[in-house]
């Protein structure tokens, strides 16, 4: 590896005034032909390319990105990682991802700053608490760690939270996943890009796919803003723009793209050392390594590709956070942004073959794709390499919207959709 | 913040008065018993989700509570107009033809 990062390399380069570090990944010109093309250079796409090269020996791979690496939803989320999903299929898939997160920095030789500070999902109603108990039990049966907490235990862990009965929706308890946490979003994209590039994957930025070349029901390649590139297998991992790509292939997807907004506050001294999420008042908050409060909530209701939403959604989110943390009412907000999330009818992803041979889609992650980045790439790489889904993603096929075998995580998952 | 005109109230009001009600003019299969699962699944779940002009339904929940059609651009969020469902459908079909 050109730059093997270690204490030794840091000292060595420090003595040379840090002037001899090499770029972390190469930026080659696109070749005419690849074995596999991945459309979309976000975390999921880069992870797919990395695992294709590392686990399946397919190294003649290109990742095509229309903008810059990790400039879409990878950089536009709130970096929360957890696997406390209710249904077996979803719990296994996200737990696979979480296990990969646990060794990811070592695997990539790149610090993704994965911090297992725990994720707490608070309940405000009796029904919330019943759901929490049910989900925690389901998690334990699936080998996912889960604890149910009382208001006092919550207060002991998060002293700033208001557990009194003065609030409109008093906190009645919470579920807690100690192995959950956060990671640094940019580092995830960069780490996977560096790892994939080192294994021979071509990462091509500023290369927009404008059409898919399909002959006789088989994919042959893609038209791009930098010329046609041929490949017998094409994996699309384009998040919010998945429907646009699908249309190029004459496919329809069960997706709707919505804006999802988030924002950060000014930097403050450490005050929350875990992630607090609430379904009922609808908001979630954690504190970044820079000291900012990172806050998010639900999607804007309307369909939108604009990477921005409406201000009343932010107002609602801020109100939810202040309901739980009255002391944050004087904190100033610093930045706000929106991403385009592709929401599926059952709030579960689609990692699937399509009726076009050699064309695969990995989409529909909706509001919760970041947590799955390594797991998603891992199983999608398997699906492409074997032209057959990994046992963990066979239930997440496109067919389920015809057979009716949905994995209904809407409302079931510990998530604020 | 979108500013939407309700064709019934004939007033431009802020988005918060309205509720988004999804893609407009999705045709229900005429004889549901006769279509296969894929067609039915397409009707229930699959959507156009275009990057561009989109015909959609909004409900004036804090006003007259009626549902109407809006043609809106999904990138610029520009609104071309709003119509009653019947008036909008005539325009929509003209566009599709």
Automatic annotation (TrEMBL), chain A:
It is found in: Cytoplasm. Its main location: cytoplasm. Keywords: Cytoplasm, FAD, Flavoprotein, FMN, Nucleotide-binding, Oxidoreductase. Its cofactor is FMN; FAD. Pfam families: DAO. One of its GO terms (cellular component) is cytoplasm. GO terms for biological process: tetrahydrofolate metabolic process. Residues 36-80 form the Rhodanese domain. Its EC number is 1.5.3.24. It is an enzyme of class 1 (oxidoreductase). InterPro entries: FAD-dep_OxRdtase, FAD/NAD-bd_sf, Rhodanese-like_dom, SoxB. It catalyses: sarcosine + O2 + H2O = formaldehyde + glycine + H2O2; sarcosine + (6S)-5,6,7,8-tetrahydrofolate + O2 = (6R)-5,10-methylene-5,6,7,8-tetrahydrofolate + glycine + H2O2. GO terms for molecular function: nucleotide binding; sarcosine oxidase activity. Belongs to the SoxB family. NCBIfam families: soxB (TIGR01373). This is Sarcosine oxidase subunit beta.
TrEMBL record, chain B:
One of its GO terms (biological process) is tetrahydrofolate metabolic process. Signal peptide: none annotated. It comes from the Bacteria. It holds the Pfam family SoxD. Coiled coil: none annotated. One of its GO terms (molecular function) is sarcosine oxidase activity. This is Heterotetrameric sarcosine oxidase delta subunit. It comes from Aquitalea magnusonii. The lineage of its organism: Bacteria, Pseudomonadati, Pseudomonadota, Betaproteobacteria, Neisseriales.
